[in-house]
Design a protein that fits this description.
- There is one protein chain.
- This protein is mainly beta.
- It contains one helix and 18 strands.
- The protein has two domains: 109 residues, GroES chaperonin (10 Kd Chaperonin, Protein Cpn10, Chain O, Roll), CATH 2.30.33.40; 73 residues, Roll (10 Kd Chaperonin, Protein Cpn10, Chain O), CATH 2.30.33.
Length: 183
Amino acid sequence: MKGTFYFLVKPKTSRYNNTKDINGKELILNSEIFSHEYISREAVVVGLPSYFKTKIKLGDTLIIHHNVFRRWHDAKGKERNSTNWISDDLYKVNVDQIYAYKRNNKWQAIDGYCFVKPIDKDLMGVVKYGKHKGKLVGFRPSSEYEFTIDNEKLYRVLEHFITIEYGSEEEKGKHHRSWLQSC
């Protein structure tokens, strides 16, 4: 199965992530399924585009835009699927709706993006996935978009919104300690 200009995907588990298993019983965390916070952002690739080559392969897990699986109400109040929906649990995804992929239990950010583990409430963090991996960076205000990947809160940041690279966390600690000793 192939798409001409898009990937074909299925939700990794479900189109929503608003439930939690507690002692074998399903607890619904939020019944408002239209909120982006409770829409799954993980998909499994079942078809590749035929028009261009890609690093992504069949079976890879993707981190995608929340609107791919989202349902919405039209002007008449009728519930509808997103324009990405094809049938049942099959969706098409454009390349600009993909932010990372996972193969062999290893996440890779798509070129142009990185995922940053935030530090406190400052506009800085350590790049977990992407070009500056392991580096402590600062980024432009309002450039971050929150994701949960492998139960960890990360910010997706466009690489060109990285405003400063401090070095690795270890290097920052060394510089900070030497500065304190000189005072």
